[in-house]
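User: Reviewer 2 asked us to show a designed sequence for the structure in our supplementary figure. I'm pasting the C-alpha coordinates here. Could you produce the per-position amino acids so we can include them in the response letter?
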Protein backbone atom coordinates (compact mmCIF):
# COMPACT_ATOMS: atom_id res chain seq x y z
CA UNK A 1 0.00 0.00 0.00
CA UNK A 2 2.77 2.46 0.94
CA UNK A 3 4.40 2.07 -2.48
CA UNK A 4 1.29 3.63 -4.03
CA UNK A 5 1.61 6.83 -1.99
CA UNK A 6 5.28 7.33 -1.16
CA UNK A 7 8.05 7.51 -3.73
CA UNK A 8 11.09 5.31 -3.28
CA UNK A 9 13.05 8.33 -2.03
CA UNK A 10 10.30 9.19 0.46
CA UNK A 11 10.24 5.61 1.77
CA UNK A 12 14.02 5.75 2.24
CA UNK A 13 13.64 9.09 4.04
CA UNK A 14 11.01 7.62 6.39
CA UNK A 15 13.13 4.52 7.05
CA UNK A 16 16.14 6.70 7.82
CA UNK A 17 14.11 8.84 10.23
CA UNK A 18 12.85 5.74 12.07
CA UNK A 19 16.38 4.36 12.32
CA UNK A 20 17.69 7.72 13.53
CA UNK A 21 15.01 7.93 16.22
CA UNK A 22 15.55 4.41 17.50
CA UNK A 23 13.11 1.92 18.98
CA UNK A 24 12.66 3.66 22.33
CA UNK A 25 11.83 7.02 20.77
CA UNK A 26 9.49 5.29 18.32
CA UNK A 27 7.58 3.72 21.22
CA UNK A 28 7.46 7.02 23.11
CA UNK A 29 6.14 8.72 19.97
CA UNK A 30 3.44 6.07 19.56
CA UNK A 31 2.36 6.56 23.18
CA UNK A 32 2.31 10.33 22.70
CA UNK A 33 0.23 9.87 19.53
CA UNK A 34 -2.35 7.80 21.45
CA UNK A 35 -2.64 10.58 24.04
CA UNK A 36 -3.09 13.18 21.28
CA UNK A 37 -5.75 11.09 19.52
CA UNK A 38 -7.70 10.67 22.75
CA UNK A 39 -7.44 14.39 23.53
CA UNK A 40 -8.51 15.26 19.98
CA UNK A 41 -11.49 12.92 20.09
CA UNK A 42 -12.59 14.52 23.36
CA UNK A 43 -12.44 17.89 21.61
CA UNK A 44 -14.42 16.60 18.64
CA UNK A 45 -17.01 14.91 20.86
CA UNK A 46 -17.24 18.02 23.04
CA UNK A 47 -17.74 20.32 20.08
CA UNK A 48 -14.61 22.40 20.80
CA UNK A 49 -14.33 24.95 17.98
CA UNK A 50 -11.15 24.64 15.91
CA UNK A 51 -10.32 28.30 16.53
CA UNK A 52 -10.08 27.76 20.30
CA UNK A 53 -6.58 27.86 21.80
CA UNK A 54 -6.79 24.26 23.02
CA UNK A 55 -7.61 23.01 19.50
CA UNK A 56 -4.78 25.02 17.99
CA UNK A 57 -2.43 23.73 20.70
CA UNK A 58 -3.44 20.15 19.89
CA UNK A 59 -2.80 20.80 16.20
CA UNK A 60 0.64 22.27 16.99
CA UNK A 61 1.62 19.24 19.13
CA UNK A 62 0.21 16.85 16.49
CA UNK A 63 2.28 18.51 13.77
CA UNK A 64 5.40 18.55 15.96
CA UNK A 65 5.01 14.82 16.54
CA UNK A 66 4.55 14.21 12.81
CA UNK A 67 7.64 16.28 12.03
CA UNK A 68 9.75 13.75 13.91
CA UNK A 69 9.01 11.35 11.05
CA UNK A 70 8.32 13.62 8.08
CA UNK A 71 11.13 15.98 7.23
CA UNK A 72 9.45 17.20 4.06
CA UNK A 73 6.04 18.45 3.02
CA UNK A 74 6.02 15.72 0.37
CA UNK A 75 5.94 12.89 2.89
CA UNK A 76 3.37 14.74 5.01
CA UNK A 77 1.10 15.17 1.98
CA UNK A 78 1.58 11.53 0.95
CA UNK A 79 0.70 10.35 4.48
CA UNK A 80 -2.47 12.48 4.51
CA UNK A 81 -3.52 11.10 1.12
CA UNK A 82 -2.76 7.54 2.21
CA UNK A 83 -4.91 8.02 5.28
CA UNK A 84 -7.80 9.76 3.52
CA UNK A 85 -8.03 7.09 0.84
CA UNK A 86 -7.54 4.08 3.14
CA UNK A 87 -8.86 5.15 6.54
CA UNK A 88 -11.31 2.26 6.91
CA UNK A 89 -8.63 -0.35 6.27
CA UNK A 90 -5.94 1.41 8.33
CA UNK A 91 -8.24 1.97 11.32
CA UNK A 92 -8.98 -1.75 11.65
CA UNK A 93 -5.75 -2.17 13.61
CA UNK A 94 -6.59 0.77 15.89
CA UNK A 95 -8.98 1.16 18.83
CA UNK A 96 -10.88 3.95 17.06
CA UNK A 97 -13.23 3.85 14.11
CA UNK A 98 -12.45 5.35 10.73
CA UNK A 99 -15.26 7.87 11.31
CA UNK A 100 -13.73 8.99 14.60
CA UNK A 101 -10.31 9.42 13.06
CA UNK A 102 -11.69 11.22 10.00
CA UNK A 103 -13.50 13.62 12.33
CA UNK A 104 -10.26 14.18 14.22
CA UNK A 105 -8.33 14.84 10.99
CA UNK A 106 -10.99 17.36 9.92
CA UNK A 107 -10.77 19.06 13.34
CA UNK A 108 -6.99 19.32 13.06
CA UNK A 109 -7.23 20.70 9.53
CA UNK A 110 -9.75 23.31 10.68
CA UNK A 111 -7.40 24.24 13.52
CA UNK A 112 -4.58 24.70 11.00
CA UNK A 113 -6.79 27.07 9.04
CA UNK A 114 -7.77 28.93 12.20
CA UNK A 115 -4.13 29.27 13.19
CA UNK A 116 -3.28 30.71 9.77
CA UNK A 117 -6.16 33.18 10.00
CA UNK A 118 -5.32 34.29 13.55
CA UNK A 119 -3.30 37.47 14.11
CA UNK A 120 0.35 36.82 14.94
CA UNK A 121 0.70 36.13 18.63
CA UNK A 122 -3.03 36.34 19.18
CA UNK A 123 -5.42 33.78 20.60
CA UNK A 124 -8.83 33.25 19.05
CA UNK A 125 -11.71 32.66 21.43
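Assistant: Here is a per-position design you can include in the supplement:
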Amino acid sequence: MFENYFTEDQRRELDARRAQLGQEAMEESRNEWVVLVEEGLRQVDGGVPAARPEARDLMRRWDELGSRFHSSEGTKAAARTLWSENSAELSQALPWTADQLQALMAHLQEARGAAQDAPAGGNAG
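For the response letter, you might also mention the following. The mean pLDDT is 89. The chain is about 75% helix and 0% strand.
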